[in-house]
Design brief:
It is a single chain. The chain is about 80% helix and about 0% strand. Helix 1 packs across helix 2 and helix 4 packs antiparallel against helix 5. It has six helices and no strands. The chain has a single domain, classed as Serine Threonine Protein Phosphatase 5, Tetratricopeptide repeat (Alpha Horseshoe). It has about 260 residues and is mainly alpha-helical. Keywords: Membrane, Transmembrane, Transmembrane helix. This is DUF998 domain-containing protein. InterPro entries: DUF998. Pfam families: DUF998 (PF06197).
Length: about 260
């Protein structure tokens, strides 16, 4: 009888203490989770301006390098030949590196942009499309184009698999940024930012138009200004990204001062 009574008392004590222990465990777990989340959020928030600044550096780097290389490369006509042909011939590694580094910077910018565009229309698709845009730069580095439009001088312009893939990546590149412009335009229109909405729409149309014009001139007009048209499109792309980065950096600074 004594043993049975003692066991019953022990079971009762265990039963009575279980809810309290569970509650304490939940409180401790929740507290640790909140601290971890706050710490990670603080670290990401502190890194956001740096990540967003990559959106300014990337287009400046890409355009500066291709303009310099196009000016100093023998037998290369920047008005006619696309910038990707700078990957071919002597010194091609410099343009290859330019593409890869530019792509890496754009991917870093995408992370910062995603952090700033947390909610609302386009908060998912704008970063996704920017990510695709950055990845295409990384990919076209090692995947070389075929010789075309007379450069490199005397090289066979026969179509190859890697050349076709390179051209396809170029189409994806311009298409993804065009789509990002229109998605952001829709977001800004809904949020009442009509100036930015209009600018993004115009940029999207110019990007798409420049790519189409480049492709047609390169295909149909012998010695036509395909290279110039492509570079105009790249400047439009780079300007839109850089201005978006500046805009998001200002928003990040305002958010930081408010908190």
């Amino acid at each position: 009888m004594v043993s049975t009574s003692g066991a019953a008392d022990e079971q009762k004590a265990t039963r009575d203490s279980t809810p309290i222990d569970d509650e304490r465990t939940c409180v401790v777990t929740d507290t640790l989770s909140r601290k971890t989340t706050a710490r990670n959020t603080g670290q990401l928030s502190a890194a956001t301006p740096i990540l967003l600044a990559c959106g300014i550096i990337a287009p400046l780097l890409n355009i500066s390098v291709l303009l310099v290389l196009g000016a100093i490369r023998p037998d290369y006509n920047a008005l006619v030949v696309p910038d990707s042909n700078l990957e071919l011939g002597p010194g091609g590694w410099m343009q290859i590196t330019n593409y890869i580094v530019t792509g890496a910077l754009l991917l870093a910018f995408t992370v910062g942009a995603k952090w700033r565009l947390l909610r609302g229309p386009g908060s998912t698709w704008v970063p996704v499309l920017l990510c695709v845009y950055g990845l295409t730069f990384v990919a076209i580095g090692p995947i070389l184009p075929d010789p075309s439009l007379g450069y490199p001088l005397g090289a066979s312009e026969e179509l190859t698999v890697h050349g076709a893939v390179h051209s396809l990546l170029g189409l994806v590149q311009f298409s993804s940024l065009t789509a990002a412009c229109f998605v952001l335009a829709r977001r800004d229109a809904k949020l009442g930012n009509l100036g930015w909405s209009t600018y993004s729409k115009v940029s999207g149309l110019l990007i798409a138009g420049s790519y189409l014009a480049f492709a047609l001139v390169a295909k149909l007009v012998d010695g036509g200004p395909a290279g110039l048209i492509e570079r105009i499109g790249l400047v439009v792309c780079g300007t839109w990204i850089a201005l978006l980065a500046i805009r998001l950096m200002k928003q990040s600074a305002q958010h930081g001062s408010a908190t």
